[in-house]
Automatic annotation (TrEMBL):
Role played: Methyltransferase required for the conversion of demethylmenaquinol (DMKH2) to menaquinol (MKH2) and the conversion of 2-polyprenyl-6-methoxy-1,4-benzoquinol (DDMQH2) to 2-polyprenyl-3-methyl-6-methoxy-1,4-benzoquinol (DMQH2).
Gene transcribed to yield this protein: ubiE
Enzyme class: transferase
Transferase in keyword set: yes
InterPro entries linked to this entry: SAM-dependent_MTases_sf (IPR029063), UbiE/COQ5_MeTrFase (IPR004033), UbiE/COQ5_MeTrFase_CS (IPR023576)
Protein name per the record: Ubiquinone/menaquinone biosynthesis C-methyltransferase UbiE
MF term (GO), any: 2-methoxy-6-polyprenyl-1,4-benzoquinol methyltransferase activity
Gene3D superfamilies tied to this protein: Vaccinia Virus protein VP39
Source species, domain of life: Bacteria
Sequence ranges of Polar residues compositional bias: 32-43
Length: 314
């Protein structure tokens, strides 16, 4: 299912609300023009949209600082004020929350379940441990970790979006999970949580929606115990150019159509496709993790690099 690229070798408060200000994003860098052939695709009436991925470049200097370099950021391919992005992302996930699981199954042909199972297998989670699942949404990972840590362990499902958090809460309560808490939290600060609180921190298909990814990585490092690990499961860059072109064609044509037919919302799924393209590639995200203080970072490509699982240790 995966091909590994190993590039290098408790308790908690539950706030009533969460209002930290959004942070600035890393500077944007030009991306190679790899979609020229798509302009002539017989399947399209116009070229596929283009965007410049955040922090995208082949290599980054050790210790590079991407923070606070401007007052604007991207929302998909649009440029918006930093303060606006969090609200716009919130509107997307308020819209898609009710059909989120169904759309995940349709969009990935069910393969997202295998991606998440692989992440759980690499988590190293053990009985009695403390786990934080950031942007946990409908609770797929939190449910699995709840069973893995057992009654002596503890899982926190956090999300900045109340609609998504409510879906996850209802689902896990129905499943009888008694060792899970549900916390509204901003990934950029993780303010509700004390330093060195968790053995494992995960974020699954959520990092690309965070405005200041570097701030979020530093916050994740802060709340991990020494020796703890971070897992980031996220869409990434396909390693084969023909697959990349096919994936772009699928993302920008089929996904909005599915969104319209199933969720009556094509624009949110167009944003989701754009946000995937704008997310840092595998090597860039690995470097960002190292800059945040993580050690022995590696990543594992799945489905030809459409998704990658990044791992780092404190």
């Amino acid at each position: 299912m995966s091909d590994s690229n190993n590039s290098t070798h408790n308790n908690l408060n539950n706030p009533n609300n969460n209002n930290p200000a959004a942070q600035n994003t890393p500077a944007q860098n030009p991306q190679d023009s790899t979609n020229a052939a798509n302009a002539n695709s017989p399947f399209l009436s116009q070229p596929l949209p283009q965007g410049t991925p955040q922090g995208q470049q082949q290599s980054l200097p050790k210790g590079a600082d991407h923070r606070n370099l401007g007052s604007t950021t991207h929302f998909g391919y649009k440029t918006v004020d930093v303060e606006e992005k969090q609200q716009k992302v919130a509107e997307v996930f308020h819209s898609v929350a009710a059909k989120y699981d169904l759309m995940n199954d349709l969009m990935s042909f069910g393969i997202h379940r295998l991606w998440k199972r692989f992440a759980i297998n690499l988590s190293g989670v053990r009985r009695g441990q403390q786990v934080l699942d950031i942007a946990g949404g409908t609770g797929d990972l939190a449910l699995a970790f709840s069973r893995e840590v057992g009654p002596q362990g503890h899982v926190v499902l956090s999300d900045i979006n109340e609609s998504m958090l409510n879906v996850g809460r209802d689902r896990l309560i129905d499943k009888g999970c008694t060792n899970v808490d549900f916390v509204l939290a901003n990934a950029e600060t993780l303010e509700p949580f004390n330093d060195e609180s968790f053995d494992l921190v995960t974020i699954s298909f959520g990092l690309r929606n965070v405005t200041d990814k570097d701030a979020a990585l530093r916050a994740m490092h802060r709340v991990l115990k020494p020796g703890g690990r971070l897992l980031i499961l996220e869409f990434s860059k396909p390693v084969f150019e023909p697959l990349s072109r096919l994936y772009d064609l699928y993302s920008f044509t089929a996904l909005p159509v599915m969104g319209k037919l199933v969720a009556n919302d094509s624009e949110s799924y167009r944003y989701l496709a754009e946000s995937i393209r704008m997310h840092p590639d595998q090597r860039t995200l690995k470097q960002m993790m190292e800059n945040a203080g993580f050690q022995s970072c590696d990543y594992h490509n799945m489905t030809g690099g459409i998704v990658a699982l990044h791992r780092g240790f404190k």
